[in-house]
Amino acid sequence: MSFTPLTFHSEQYKISLELRNNHLWKPLGLDMKDADLSNEKNDRHFAWLNDSDKVIASAIISGSGDIVKLRQMVVHPDYQGKKIGKKLLCKIEDFMIAKGSARIELHAQVQAAGFYSKLGYKKDGEEFIEVGIPHIKMFRNLLCSTC
Ligand SMILES: CC(C)(COP(=O)(O)OP(=O)(O)OC[C@H]1O[C@@H](n2cnc3c(N)ncnc32)[C@H](O)[C@@H]1OP(=O)(O)O)[C@@H](O)C(=O)NCCC(=O)NCCS
């Protein structure tokens, strides 16, 4: 099992797209085939690989500098509840600290907010609807590491 940054349009990136489409988009009634993902060339892509080097979890960081945004965090259902999400996010945080970032923000699905809270993320403001379901803005200041 290992952490890796992904190159945009690499084979592993394409597997991460399938993972996101099947387990993040389709449960919300969305399909990536209708989406323009060309802007993702500007993002940083990260994955967790199983022992066969298959992508089993992934997430994206958009932006650069002090404040960056985490998006599209997903763990394959066969691997959920095994601390893969926690390990992936901790590695992403370390990576972004090394790049000089000081804060990660995200729009959490409310059903997943407890996951981020466990990792030290704080809620910011009221719930709102995004892609048809309740979300809440969350953030973590990276300089106070809990991992
Ligand atoms: C949410 C998700 C990324 C969590 O990843 P995971 O690998 O299953 O979580 P972990 O095993 O690393 O859990 C770490 C901790 O968070 C807790 N946790 C995980 N998911 C949770 C949830 N939905 N609500 C509350 N707590 C949660 C775990 O119980 C664990 O707590 P512990 O350390 O006290 O034992 C994953 O379940 C997932 O991909 N879900 C479907 C897609 C999704 O909701 N993505 C997030 C969109 S914002």
How would you describe this protein?
By secondary structure, the protein is an alpha+beta fold. The chain has one domain: Gcn5-related N-acetyltransferase (GNAT) (Aminopeptidase). It has three helices and eight strands. Strands 1, 2, 3, 4, 5, 6, 7 and 8 form an eight-stranded mixed beta sheet that branches. The relative contact order is 0.15. The protein binds coenzyme A.
The CATH superfamily is identified as Gcn5-related N-acetyltransferase (GNAT)
**What structural category arises from helix and sheet content?**
alpha+beta
- Uncertain regions: pLDDT < 50 for 5+ in a row? none
Reading the helices and strands in chain order gives: EHEEEHEHEEE
Number of helices: 3
Using the coordinates shown, work out and report the CATH topology. Answer: Aminopeptidase
Keyphrases for this structure?
147 residues, alpha+beta, Aminopeptidase, eight-stranded mixed β-sheet, 3 helices, 8 strands, 24% helix, globular, binds coenzyme A
Task: Give me a quick take on this structure.
The protein has helices at residues 11-25, 84-98, 113-118; strands at residues 2-6, 44-49, 55-62, 67-75, 103-109, 122-123, 128-130, 133-141. It is an alpha+beta fold and 147 residues long.
SSE blueprint and pairings:
Elements: E1 2-6, H1 11-25, E2 44-49, E3 55-62, E4 67-75, H2 84-98, E5 103-109, H3 113-118, E6 122-123, E7 128-130, E8 133-141
Parallel strand pairs: 4-5
Antiparallel strand pairs: 1-2, 2-3, 3-4, 5-8, 6-8, 7-8
The protein binds coenzyme A.
